[in-house]
Amino acid sequence: MTHPVDPAVENAHTDMVYLFRRSTTAEPAGMAAACRAALDRLAALPTLDPDDPSTWTSYALITADVQTLIGYLREAGVPSSEPERFRSLMIRVLRYLYVADRAELGALLAERVRSDWEPRIGGSHVHTLAAAARLAACLHARGDSKQARPVFERILLLWSRKHGDDHPDTLLAACNMGACLNQLQDYRAALRLNTGTVQRCERRLGKDHHTTILATENLAGSFFGLRELETALMLYRDIHQRLERGLGENSLETLNAQANIAITLGALGGHEAARIIDTGLLPKMERVAGKDYSGAKDTRVRLEMNLRALGRDEEADEVHGGIPKFGGPP
C-alpha cells in the first residue's frame, strides 16, 4: 500500500527546491546561507515515527532532501551538526533507512554525519553515538556484521562506562551486540550475552519493554542457531504474544515476530503449521509494508517452500502469481 506524503513534508520539499534553485548561481556566502536555511527548514518538520510503514513515503522524500542538502553542505563548508533538531531528524531518517530495507544508503549517510558530528559535538555525545549505532545497524542489515562488530563493541563499552551495565542505553547497545554475534554465527558467545541481557532488561525495564523484547528475540535467535529449536519456538511465541498485546496484531513488529514462528516451525518439519501462518501473514505483510518489503518477499518464498514440502506443487506454482486461494486463517 502506498501512503500519501505528509503535507508538512511536501511543503518543506517545495521550500528546499526553491532555496537551492536560487542559490546554485550565488556566491559562496549565499550558498552557505541557503544551507543554513535548509537545515532550519528540515529541522522544523514534525516528528514522524520511522517504524510506522505509513510514514515511509514521507521519509523517502525527506531522505532525498537530506541527500541533496548534505551534498551542498560539503560544498559550502557548513557542518550538519547544528541545529540540534536537525540531528534528531537525521537519526530518524537513518532509522527509516534501516527498517525500510535501504541499509546501503543508510550506512553511507550514517558514516557521513557521524564523521561530521564527532569532531564538533564529541564522539561520546548521545547523537554521535546514535549515528554510530545507525551505521552499525545498517552494516549489519546488509550482512556486513564483521565491519559492524567493532562499532557495536565501542558503543557498548562507552555506554557501560558512562552509565553502568543496567542503564537503558547500555542494555539497548548490548541487544545490538547480541544480534551481531548471532549473525556472525558465534552462537555460544551470543547465548551468554543475550541470556544476561534478557535478565538485566527484565529486572530493570520489565518484560514488556521494547528493549526486553529485542533481547529476548536475540536469545531465541541464539537457540535457533544452536538448533535448540523447541526452546527458540517457545520464546518466539512468547514474543509474538507480548507484541500483539502491546502493539496490536497488525503492527510490523508483530508480523515479523509471527514470521519467526513460521520459520522455526518449518525448521522443525511443521510445514503445515508454518503454511497456515504464512497464508494469513502474507496479505497482512503486503498490506502494511508493501509487496517489495523484504519480510513480505521472504514470507512468499517460505509459503512456496512449505507447500512443496507438503507435496502441493500446483498451489506452490501459484504463490508468485498472487495470494493462493486455499485454506488458512482469514
Quick tags:
single chain, 330 residues, mainly alpha, Serine Threonine Protein Phosphatase 5, Tetratricopeptide repeat, 15 helices, 0% strand, disordered C terminus
Terminal-residue CA separation: 19 Å
Q: What is the radius of gyration?
A: 22 Å
Kindly estimate the percentage of residues that lie in beta strands according to DSSP.
under 5%
Q: Uncertain runs with pLDDT below 50, 5 residues or more? A: 322-330
| Element string (H = helix, E = strand) | HHHHHHHHHHHHHHH
* Shape descriptor: globular
Main sheet: strands, sense, barrel = none
SS field, number of helical segments: 15
Fraction of helical residues: over 70%
Averaging pLDDT over every residue, what do you get? 92
Total strands: 0
What would you call the structural class? mainly alpha
Would you give an account of this structure?
The protein is an all-alpha fold. Among the domains are: 101 residues; 99 residues, Serine Threonine Protein Phosphatase 5, Tetratricopeptide repeat. Helices cover 76% and strands 0% of the residues. It has 15 helices and no strands. α1 runs antiparallel to α2, α1 runs parallel beside α3 and α10 packs antiparallel against α11. The radius of gyration is 22 Å and the shape is globular.
Write a brief structural summary.
76% of the residues lie in helices and 0% in strands. The chain has helices at residues 7-23, 28-43, 56-76, 84-99, 103-121, 126-141, 145-163, 168-183, 187-204, 210-225, 229-247, 252-267, 271-289, 294-309, 313-318.
